[in-house]
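Protocol step 4 of 6: record predicted structures for both targets in the notebook before any analysis. Target 1:
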Amino acid sequence: MCQAPAPPPAPAAQAPQPPSQASPAAQAAPKTVAVQTYPAEQVRAGAPLFAAQCGFCHGRDATGGQTGPDLTRSPLVAEDVRGDKIGPVVRSGRPDKGMPPFNLAEADLAAVVAFMHDQKAKSDLQQGGRRAVDISDLQTGDANAGQAFFNGAGGCARCHSPSADLADVAVRLKGLELLQRMLYPNNRGGGAASTPIKAVVTLPSGETLTGRLAYRDEFTIAVKNADGWYRSWRTSDVKFTIDDPLEAHAALLPKYTDTDMHNVLAYLQTLRQEVKK
């Protein structure tokens, strides 16, 4: 007598999937290589400086914004020892990521470094991931004061017009995205620059090479020419000039007060006239 075949085994229940490793909260924060303490008054001095210069992208407490990474989880901050790694990045910026250089006084830079390390130390004691920027922070400006800054001290009206290129800017961009484009107009959420920055490099022989700025930090400058060739040099070996069409925006960053930024944003949020095609 034939035995009936055994029924196929029931499919195993799938185990719950772990959080995506792409999520900052799913990854352990890098450990600080050297525990550092700073005077309380220096940390307090760094807080408003960080908020004014970096807060809209990285959050007021350095734990991340909608377009900027959580600096308390940054390997650069974890490996930094009293500004030896943070300082060069702040001074040179990261043009490839839309971050301009910041010309801070030594005492101000030291205070910002102290604040960042203090925030990382606090974050290391807590659980949780990246915090978004509170949208209410973006709704506190005075539009009339922003218009006065736009037309006066800010010099914005020299290149922009509320009845032309900016006529519908508040329709196209909203909230933090609008602020991001106001401060870093060549950057879309950390992507590549849409307005190429040109560089002219003069070699010791006197030969000059012109191309798109591909990379620049304290030690290296690199350009890519029209044929796509990439060349780099040590900054100490060559002379170079940078032609950045958006330099005026970068120059404003250390001059803006927190109030100025809120006011200009409030003014831009009123520019809702649709541009006729």
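Target 2:
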Amino acid sequence: MKALTALVLAGTRAGGDPLAAAAGVSHKALIAIAGLTMIEHVVRALDAMPEVGRIVIAIERPEVLDALPGLREPSCRRPVSVIAAAEGPSASVASVLAREGVPLLVTTADHALLRPEWLRTFLDATPSDADATVALANRRNVVAAAPDTRRTYLRFAEGEYSGCNLFLLRRPAANGAVDLWRQLETERKRPLRMMLRLGIRFALRYGLGRLRLDQALARLERLSGARVAFVELTDGRAAIDVDKPEDLELVRRLMAGADRD
């Protein structure tokens, strides 16, 4: 596989983000945790991966990142470019995919806990014939890592899984998966409604807890024309991003604990 371009989605919600406003910054990505902004933590993890050739950050106001030393040498050895975000995460991914091509590794700026070892597991476990791969964490591992965290889970026959904000678009057919993502994006926090968009029988099996993960992936393949795979990350912290004030406090506690270990 040729060198990866890594895309970090750092855009904000329409009308601003309450967490950013409470912290006195323009974007959630600029909130400081353990001495660095969240975006700098994410870039540092990506920079540790030999497969990553360059890093692209999508944010509405690229100039807000100009003063961050963690995005340039000597802190970051990879070239970093900053582009204006499109309207919504999937639209930004589609835009960068059209410009950069594959392979494209995608994550988010609020994934401040991102660790190189999770990236290594994700890349090494991605099937060689997959067009698009998504990282998931089983609920039992998320709860073991952070018992009080509240996440959105997809319920399958094998168990409940949370997304880890980590995607690999490896082959050209991944464009179909991104197109489908754009259609489903509005329902991402409402799993059953999202399943209804994929088909009534599909949603019924999901609602009854009878839908297997391989069946869900097969359905996504039929709708997108892309072979979609998943990689399970066993460290439950991989599913923890910063959406709410309690997430921010949790990530700060987890980082402080890691520093003491």
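Step 5 preliminary note on target 2. The longest helix spans residues 245-260. The longest strand covers residues 159-169.
Proceed to step 6 after PI sign-off.
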